[in-house]
Amino acid sequence: MSRALRRSALVLATICLTALALLPVAAQAAWTGQTSALTAVIIPGVSCPTSTTCVQQNTVGKSQYTTNGGTTWTASAADLTDSTWGLDCPSTTLCFATGDNGNIYKSTNLGVSWTTVSTGTPALYGIACPSTSVCYAVSGTGAIRKTTDGGATWPIGSTQTGGAGLYSVSCPSTTVCYAITAAGAIYKKQAANDTWSSVATSAQISDVISPYTHGISCPSLSVCYVGGTDGTIAKTSDGGANWSNLTSGTTPDIYAISCASDTRCIAVGVANQSSFTDNGGSSWTTENTGSAAAMYSVTWAGGSTAIAGDAIGKPYKYAAPQPPDADVAVSATLNAGTLSFIDGTPGNVTFSTSLNGANQVLTATQPLTVGDATGSGAGWSIAATSTTFTTGSRNLSNTATTVTTAPSLACKASTTCTLATNAVTYPFTLPAAASAPTAQKLYTAAAGTGMGAQTVTPTWRLSVPATTYAGAYTSTWTFTLTSGP
């Protein structure tokens, strides 16, 4: 015995949900002084190859390092013999320092020991290493030394600045560098060759204070910041074609500046003052460094912490402020899905037995999986009807098919649902006639229930009297799924 089926479905409305998200409360910026292993002289050089590893060098050739973000500092065992001004560590196993006797020194152990890798004149000041292979060292005569082999050789290029001394250099890439003179002029190298050209004059930006300041920082190919007298900071955003003077929020001279990104910079100098920006210099926040002396060097160790050195040999650590609180409107648009039978249900039902001269009741289960993705909570109902079971001219009773107890109900596997609350009472007799009569409700889901995917499984009972004629009886069953109980 078998039956055919028919299904229906409804599509409901769209809803919009809006919520408000709050970001964490902003933390305050702060400077903390740290215990130094150096003597009380100027620290013009600081470099941090990682967020926790930093090296500092003072003007009498002594260095110290930290591997725990500045909590403790260890002095190097070997000192250099001349005054050192520049320091850059492109990795934790490679550092270079420059001296005023024209020497370049190399360390592979954070300054614990040093070897001389280049000698001669003129005096060298700033150094920048955009990679472990390439470094540029600038001199007081404008001559520039460059290595492309990790410091094995340092040929001296021709003077590219007309004799103007260069005191600080910053290289955002291995082929692009910016260097600044004592008079405030800026030169740029922007090709694979070693040609440098002037991109700013002293009339456009403030003067650099002294040979051992690090008053230039270029976080990207197009963006550079230069610190100068009276708290002035000059900035270019187009590779040096144009410069604008920014107000740093402080009037003391700026000795060093470092930028972790195009928008985040920290500047230090005299009078215990520092200036911080997180918006590309549109505004600056001033902080007292806590030092009793001027700051001569600063660099970022990661994006949120900076390490500085002052004029009396002490390291300082700066914790940048977190972004301010912000309220953000968050919206979620949830479009309504459909109400329908899913997973190939309802499926065909088959009863089978051998007549034995006695009345029999045959049973068969039939899963009906309902997917309510409307999001309306309107509930639903399953109604059923059928045609008379027939074989040739023989029929079964139109009341032969029943459900005597409530069908079982369960959420579809691996999904969540709101189980239906059913209002139908049992037994239920499947309507039947030669032409299917009006369908009757087999199962319902009250409003606010039946959401999601769930399976209703009735157990059908077919009564077969002892006087039934043998044959293959068929019936067409029709199921209708509608919104609302």
Could you explain the architecture of this structure?
This protein has 485 residues and is mostly beta strands. The protein folds into two domains: 24-319, YVTN repeat-like/Quinoprotein amine dehydrogenase (Methylamine Dehydrogenase, Chain H, 7 Propeller); 336-483. It is 0% helix and 43% strand. The protein contains no helices and 44 strands. The strands form twelve sheets. A five-stranded antiparallel beta sheet has the order 1-31-33-42-38, with no helix packed on it. A hairpin with a 5-residue loop joins strand 17 and strand 18 (196-200). The radius of gyration is 41 Å and the shape is rod-shaped. The two termini are 31 Å apart. Residues 1-26 have low confidence and may be disordered.
What is shown here, in short?
The protein is mainly β and 485 residues long. It has two domains: 296 residues, YVTN repeat-like/Quinoprotein amine dehydrogenase (Methylamine Dehydrogenase, Chain H, 7 Propeller), CATH 2.130.10.10; 148 residues. The protein is built from no helices and 44 strands.
Output the number of helix runs: 0
CATH architecture identity of the largest domain = 7 Propeller
**Count of beta strands:** 44
Q: For the largest sheet, list the strands in their spatial order.
A: 1-31-33-42-38
Remind me, CATH topology of the largest domain?
A: Methylamine Dehydrogenase, Chain H
Give me the CATH superfamily of the largest domain: YVTN repeat-like/Quinoprotein amine dehydrogenase
Report the β-strand fraction as a percent range.
Answer: 35-45%
Radius of gyration: 41 Å
Helicity range: under 10%
- Characterize the quaternary organization of these chains: single chain
> What structural class do the secondary elements suggest?
mainly beta
- Amino- and carboxy-terminal Cα gap: 31 Å
